[in-house]
TrEMBL record:
Main location group: membrane
Signal peptide location: none
Superkingdom of the source species: Bacteria
Name of the protein described by the UniProt record: Apolipoprotein N-acyltransferase
The protein's enzyme class: transferase
Record's bilayer topology term: Multi-pass membrane protein
Gene: lnt
Pathway where this protein functions: Protein modification; lipoprotein biosynthesis (N-acyl transfer)
Residue spans crossing the bilayer: 48-66, 73-95, 144-167, 174-195, 469-489
Job of this protein: Catalyzes the phospholipid dependent N-acylation of the N-terminal cysteine of apolipoprotein, the last step in lipoprotein maturation.
Organism whose genome encodes this protein: Nocardioides taihuensis
Keyword terms of this UniProt record: Acyltransferase, Cell membrane, Membrane, Transferase, Transmembrane, Transmembrane helix
Keyword DNA-binding included in the entry's annotation: no
Length: 497
């Protein structure tokens, strides 16, 4: 067992290297193989332990950025995510009894990713296998199979590698006609036909990164100055446009938390936004916190149009538990003093229609929304031509989180076949092409304005059409596989085929 635990530990740590800031994506199948080899051949009652060790070795380093919120929050979140991999260890041990077990194992891996992305408390998608594939041939499969489908191909490559290592005694359990080489080839086959989206038009977008005062890691240190930074940067953009130094954009994108107070209740903030909008003479998509009664707040992207004011709005789908709202507030707020800094709970949005910004249909995602499939896919299926991300990563600006999120955003561009404009308060802001190429990027912890032309597309990729159904199907198939494995285990030895 000690050898298995050591293998699980090494496998989990190596998988961390696949993600930013290292980005050694090629280790993904090897790490999955290590997980499989550490768990197969054990009873499920013991296989959960190497699975848990793998999960601890993977989740705690990967999400170490959460420590800036609090070491207790980091320990709790990483621990919950590690438990899912412990469960996966027991599941893999059972599925190994079935013919074609590498396929069953890959299906189970996706099933667990699907479940942990959905819950508890809204789920946490960080660490999905597909999120480590930017700048690899594997990423070309995303428009066809989506994040869950690519995760399946990567897990299949890893489980097939484990099958190859186990030797002839175990290989006979893989169905006739399937080979490890064929399974590994599945992981790169879609790269032979890269997705090329149709372009229906072009728009010029200005992305404003206003910067955050002080050390840059506290968005609430001086929230009025944060807003003023974005107002002034937009006014300066307007002056450059009038002087002919910059083209006039079709709209301007501000980040999440560009105003941390309700601009409809604060006359000074409202006037500042109006001044900025009038200076550029085009709509500005403002990131604002809007009151919703005495106990709740909304995190919104608001289309602010010259001469009209505030109009169309998108509300963040996935507020962060214990960061933007407190589950079971009556218990936790009385026992963890730091939670007193969150006096109101953020409500979740449900909008599935894209925003209309001066005739352009725009899908919006606010911060962690970009890591979830649901809201983005819904808006694209309903006709969005462009994807924007409004984010406030100031809390994590000195950690690896900002680069990990930007990598996820690049993969969203590839998956959806859309240009993506990203506005962050102080990093990382940028413009990303549908093939994942970074067209323009602002340096973190600076004030910057990016003005770039982007393409529009109304073409919906197969991945967006499939949405979450592949992941959900993997959950159902895994349940069936577990039932079959239990039946095979209980069948008398003489009755086995």
């Amino acid at each position: 067992m000690l050898r298995r635990l050591a293998l699980a530990l090494v496998g989990g740590l190596s998988l961390v290297l696949a993600f930013e800031p290292v980005g050694a994506s090629y280790v993904v199948p090897v790490s999955v193989a290590a997980f499989v080899l550490a768990t197969v051949g054990l009873p499920a009652s013991r296989a959960w332990l190497p699975g848990l060790v793998f999960g601890i070795a993977f989740c705690y380093p990967l999400m170490f950025w959460m420590r800036v919120v609090g070491y207790d929050a980091w320990a709790a979140m990483s621990g919950v995510e590690a438990l899912f991999l412990g469960l996966l260890g027991a599941v893999v041990a059972l599925l190994h009894r079935l013919p074609a077990w590498p396929v069953w194992v890959a299906t189970a891996w996706v099933a667990v990713e699907q479940v942990r992305t959905s819950g508890p408390l809204g789920g946490m998608p960080w660490g999905r296998l597909s999120y480590a594939t930017a700048d690899t041939p594997w990423a070309s499969a995303l428009p066809y199979v989506g994040q869950a489908g690519l995760g399946f191909l990567l897990a299949l490559a890893g489980s097939s590698l484990a099958w190859l290592v186990l030797g002839p005694g175990r290989r006979q359990r893989f169905v006739a006609g399937a080979t490890a080489g064929g399974a590994l080839a599945l992981a790169t086959l879609p790269a032979l036909a890269p997705w090329t989206p149709d372009t229906t038009g072009h728009r010029t977008v200005a992305v404003v990164q206003g910067n955050v005062p002080g050390e840059g890691d506290d968005i609430l240190l001086d929230p009025r100055q944060v807003t003023q930074n974005h107002v002034q940067a937009t006014i300066d953009l307007g002056a450059n446009i009038d002087a002919g130094r910059e083209p006039r954009p079709d709209f301007v994108l501000w980040p999440e938390n560009s105003t941390a107070s309700d601009p409809f209740l604060d006359e000074g903030l409202n006037l500042g936004i109006e001044t900025a909008v009038d200076a550029v003479g085009v709509p500005v998509l403002v990131g604002a916190m809007v009151d919703s009664g005495p106990d709740h707040v909304l995190n919104q992207g608001i289309v602010w149009t010259p001469g009209v004011g505030a109009g169309d709005r998108y509300t963040k789908w996935h507020p962060v538990p214990f960061g933007e709202y407190i589950p079971w507030r009556s218990f936790f707020s009385g026992n963890i003093g730091r939670l007193a800094l969150i006096p109101r709970d953020m409500l979740s949005g449900t909008r599935t229609e894209p925003l209309t910004v001066d005739g352009t249909r725009v899908a919006d995602a606010i911060c962690f929304d970009v890591a979830y499939d649901d809201g983005i896919h819904a808006q694209l299926r309903n006709g969005a031509d462009l994807l924007v991300v409004q984010t406030s990563n100031a809390t994590f600006i000195k950690t690896d989180q900002i680069e990990q999120q930007f990598e996820i955003t690049r993969l969203r561009a590839i998956e959806t076949g859309r240009y993506v404009a990203v506005a962050s308060t102080n990093g990382v802001s940028g413009i990303i092409a549908p093939d994942g190429t970074v067209v323009d990027r602002a340096e973190p912890r600076t004030t910057a304005v990016l003005v770039d032309q982007v393409g529009l597309s109304d073409q919906v990729t197969p991945a967006v059409r499939i949405g979450q159904w592949f992941g959900r199907a993997c959950v159902a198939v895994t349940v069936v596989g577990l039932l079959l494995a239990l039946v095979a285990y209980r069948r008398p030895r003489g009755e086995q085929a």
